[in-house]
Design a protein that fits this description.
The complex is a heterodimer of chains A (about 270) and B (about 290). Chain A has nine helices and twelve strands. Chain A has about 270 residues and is of the alpha/beta class. Chain B has one domain: ABC transporter involved in vitamin B12 uptake, BtuC (Orthogonal Bundle), CATH 1.10.3470.10. The chains are: A alpha/beta (about 270), B mainly alpha (about 290).
């Protein structure tokens, strides 16, 4: 398996996008290219616009300026080739659906309006459940699961979408070790299927060790490239400002608080 | 027992009434699952009241009251979708404004009618025994169309109700589907006017579906159970009203409420009594270890 280099033809082109909430700019002047099958970590302080970037890439937020091209075509040409896993699903956990029902929803984009899921759809769902280690939970209500298990359900659903590009917002924040391991294994699985992956994370070590490229943003693009080139003091202090602390031995720490519900979440797994 | 059941059916108005009641019971119960899951009870109630001006105008023009109600419901459903789209104002605010405006208009129109008639009070409280053959055909036809659409759009309605973000990333026309759902709800409410009337329509939408919600963990089975409860309540309510000589709409709603209460207390999944029983041993274990 060869690691795709950044020089290959781009699969995802983001050209000078500008996104605003009620007139307040949230992201501006963001331009980057992600090649076929690359794995990119999106890094930045809280409020840097990481989630905004993902929501814009998937078409949930309108672009005020600029454009997003996938396979060289504008957003919207590709029905379901981009899957998005939000940081915390804002769904009604009391909704009467089973784990299998939720994962099957990932196939709906490929079905016609009146078409029923085929055996192939069902077998893709089973494969996705197996990949996330939750096949034995298939007939449970989603409300009966722990936080980590719930996240794995939504990762399985993204997998069932068979996306070309997968966007994951903070999948490593506030989850149990099992879910974290399963997610990391998933990344290797996706790599072998040539899926382009963008993940936002707070974990700079993880970004440095497991990713092909790092996208450092703070409302604007700070730096983009190989982890070793991007994760240097100059760039990090531009992105994090006073939150960056450099120890005498050269170790850099980012003093960053995690979202407030994280503490609670990590205790949910029993 | 058999004669007790059959005796009322010797009257043709009772036969028509029973059929209409069961159709409406099923219909409301199925649409009600979305009303309960999406928190649209207020919308259902508002829709029922907002129908009044349409009925009043139809009455003034000597037209079919049901058709007038239908027209008003469609206008209200689409207006709510229009005013609340893209989050201009919140959905329940839009509902509140339109509901009050339509109700006021209805009352104003009715107060101007000199020969205030029984027909209008039937719209308010339902008149199941006055269902004509034409009404029955209209009810059955609309019911069939609504159930068919709910069945065909099952996937889409499930996704926009459960996870609107996924619906948007799958490029489903979320706004269109939402308006479409409002429209189906409006049609359902109009059909339900005959049995329970404006005042109690919301109960037929909410009570059987809420009961089914306590009993199941799948959407489709929630629909089936809800429909069963709706149908049984409608039939039972009609018999009760026949033998006890009370208003049929009230009897139907009270019967459905009784089923809800029984399930709320005794059901094996989420029942109140069961929860109390489960809690007790847990406390004793804690005491031992502590």
């Amino acid at each position: 398996m060869t690691n795709p280099s950044l020089a290959e033809p781009a699969r995802l082109d983001v050209e000078n996008i500008y996104v605003a909430y009620n007139g307040t700019p949230a992201l501006r002047d963001i331009t980057f290219q992600v090649p076929h099958g690359a794995r990119v970590a999106v890094i930045g302080p809280n409020g840097a616009g990481k989630s905004t970037l993902f929501r814009a890439l998937v078409g949930l937020l309108p672009l005020q300026q600029g454009r997003v091209l996938i396979h060289g075509l504008a957003l919207g040409h590709h029905l379901d080739c981009v899957a998005y896993v939000p940081q915390r699903e804002e769904v009604d956990w009391g909704f009467p659906v089973t784990v299998r029902d939720v994962v099957l929803m990932g196939r709906y984009g490929r079905l016609g309006w009146l078409q029923h899921p085929s055996w192939r759809d069902h077998s893709t769902v089973t494969e996705s459940l197996k990949a996330m280690g939750i096949v034995e939970l298939a007939n449970q209500s989603i409300g009966d699961l722990s936080g980590g298990q719930q996240q794995r359900v939504f990762l399985a659903r993204a997998l069932a979408q068979e996306p070309h590009i997968l966007l994951m917002d903070e999948p490593f924040t506030g989850v149990d070790m099992t879910t974290q391991d399963v997610t990391l294994n998933l990344l290797d699985h996706l790599r072998s299927n040539q899926v382009t992956v963008l993940i936002s994370t707070h974990d700079l070590n993880l970004a440095a060790s497991r990713f092909d490229a790092v996208l450092l943003i703070n409302k604007r693009l700070i730096a983009y490239g190989a982890p070793r080139q991007v994760l240097v003091q100059e760039n990090l202090s531009r992105a994090f400002g006073p939150q960056l602390m450099v120890l005498p031995d050269g170790t850099m720490l980012v003093d960053q608080c995690c979202p407030p519900d994280e503490e609670i979440e990590s205790h949910r797994e029993i | 027992m058999i004669s007790w059941l059959l005796e009322p059916l010797t009257y043709s108005f009772m036969q028509r009434g029973l059929l209409a009641a069961v159709i409406v019971g099923i219909l409301c119960a199925v649409m009600g699952t979305y009303v309960v899951l999406r928190g649209m009870a207020f919308l259902g109630d508002a829709m029922a009241h907002a129908i009044l001006p349409g009925v009043a105008i139809a009455y003034l023009l000597h037209g079919n009251l049901l058709v007038g109600a239908l027209a008003a419901a469609v206008v209200i459903a689409l207006s709510i979708g229009f005013f609340s789209r893209q989050g201009t104002i919140k959905e329940d605010t839009a509902i509140g404004i339109l509901f009050a405006a339509a109700l006021s208009m209805g009352v104003a129109l009715i107060s101007s009618i000199q020969t205030y008639a029984v027909d209008l009070s039937h719209i308010l409280f339902g008149n199941i025994l006055g269902v004509s053959l034409n009404d029955l055909w209209l009810t059955a036809g609309l019911g069939l169309v609504i159930l068919l659409v709910v069945g065909l759009a099952y996937k889409q309605f499930l996704v926009i109700s459960f996870d609107p973000v996924l619906a948007a990333t799958l490029r489903l026309p979320v706004e269109l589907l939402r308006n479409f759902m409002f429209l189906l709800l409006a049609l359902t409410v109009v059909v339900s006017l005959q049995t329970v009337g404006v005042g109690l329509a919301v109960a037929m939408l909410v009570t059987p579906a809420a009961t089914a919600y306590l009993l199941t963990r799948r959407l489709w089975s929630m629909m089936v159970i809800s429909a069963l409860i709706g149908a049984i309540s409608s039939a039972a309510g009609l018999y009760i009203s026949y033998y006890l000589n009370i208003v049929s709409g009230s009897a139907i709603v009270l019967f459905a409420t009784l089923i809800f209460l029984l399930v709320f207390l005794f059901n094996p999944r989420k029942g109140l009594l069961r929860r109390w029983k489960v809690k007790t041993p847990r406390i004793s274990v804690e005491n031992k270890s502590g």
